[in-house]
Amino acid sequence: MLLNLFLKKKDWPVDFLGQLRHQIMIICRCCKESRKELLKIPNLFITSDDDVPEDICFYRNDKLWFATVTHEKLSFMQNPTKQDLAFLKEHKIAFNNI
Q1: CA–CA dist 86, 90 (Å, integer)
Q2: % of the chain with per-residue pLDDT over 70
Q3: What residues have CB less than 8 Å from 29, skipping those under 6 apart?
Q4: Which of 37, 55, 57, 78 is at a distance of 20 to 30 A from 13, taking alpha carbons?
Q5: DSSP one-letter string for 30-63
Q6: Most distant CA pair in the chain, distance
Q7: Domain spans in the chain, listed from the N-terminal domain onward
Q8: Nearest one of 63, 71, 37 to 51, comparing CA atoms
Q9: Which residues contact 34 (CB under 8 A, 6 or more apart)?
Q10: What tens digit of pLDDT does each residue of 36-68 get?
């Protein structure tokens, strides 16, 4: 359960979606345990219960790197590295490089 890895809760600092109401970000530790729990989620875009977070995001160097918008079934990556793109290709994950 990801909630066991909970560190803190704060307002969602993402402003790329424009005016938002009551958005909350829950910050979890990034470690072997969190990876193990995330790998249990069969699909990031289907939330079936309260134990599965929505709109999972990952940060790299304190900047948003990978984000999902669960109800829209979309995700995006900011400033992907060559290794990021190679990973997507290797795992046959379709993407558009804008």
Answers
A1: 6
A2: 66
A3: 5, 7
A4: 37
A5: -SHHHHHHHHT-S-TT---STTS-SS-EEEETTE
A6: 38
A7: 2-90
A8: 37
A9: 2, 5, 28
A10: 877 777 787 876 665 667 788 888 888 888 888
